[in-house]
Amino acid sequence: MEGTYRASPHSLEDRMIAETICSAVSAAGLGIAAITAYRKRFLAATRIAAYSLIPIGLVLTGAVEWAVDTAFSPTAWIGFGLLGGAWLLFMTTRAVERRRGVTGRKERKAARAAEREAVAPAASAPSLGRGTSAGTTGRAAGTRPAKSGGGDDFSDIEAILKKHGI
Questions:
Q1: What is the DSSP code string of 73-98?
Q2: What is the DSSP track for 116-130?
Q3: pLDDT digits over 115-134, tens only?
Q4: Listed residue (9, 108, 149) closest to 68, CA to CA
């Protein structure tokens, strides 16, 4: 056993299996792309060919070898687990912030100040009633809507209903 050296216990066999699978996926994808191009769908065929060249490109760059070595390493899986946990915590905090509607300290201060200063609005006039000429509001010249002392003013609605014969 003097001349045999292996970097990891599964590296050669696992790498060969992964390279074979990637090559088969690429060949199958190129075959599907050729059939698609035969059916005169060239844009789709080009897209399929692009996707099918990715696995063989990963093999040739060495990314598959790295992935195989990583897949059988318990330390790497612990690292991926920690990264996933950190991502989950980050996304949870972002979701809570978005649900509350504020994201920064300044925004939280401004929201609290706005809540303290908030006053219940009085009954508002119709949106067309302010700052427009009498001809566009449907009222006679020189008349103004009656101010209600907290009650609802349905005169505009009644005018619209009468106009339409309802």
A1: -HHHHHHHHHHHHHHHHHHHHHHHHH
A2: HH--PPPPPPPTTTS
A3: 776 655 555 555 555 554 54
A4: 9
